[in-house]
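SAMPLE LOG
Freezer: B-3
Tube label: C17
Construct: single chain, 172 aa
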Amino acid sequence: MRWLLALALLGCGGHGIGGGGDGSTCRDTADCDSGLACAGPDDRQPCGIPPRQECASDTDCQGTRCHAIADSCSPDGVGSECRAACTGDGECGAGFHCDNGACAAIPCTQASCGALEVCDLSGITASTPIYDRTNGCRPIACTSDAPCGDNVCVNAVCQSGPGTCKKPLLVP
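STRUCTURE (predicted):
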């Protein structure tokens, strides 16, 4: 009976016991062999270049404004750049608006977040760097599948399926 239990654990990625080779299913990096990391199906895919973080605030922008911008290479999808003050929302791009002359992410409501997210604006303050001022949609935190409904807990957040052990992409 113990042999069958051990075999079953290894077949499902061995949650919490390591031993998951490249391509194995996982719930966190502890399930993967050394040198591999658990990549969830809903994790933002790394693009291989650093995120655009030209400025943290207006003080970094010698005479111009620090604007939040969409950045697919950023872990949270928001980057920043220095440029002249905006005068209207059309200058800021989708998901952003002109707020007092600087582009900023449009704050979330629970309805504007995805099924596996909650709207949480509590971590966004005036001292938060511009590139970290997201719309506030955050993945649902978890330590088990319980808060995830029909989904699964991978890397401590609810995701649509199990993760896969992969070699991490190092970003310069």
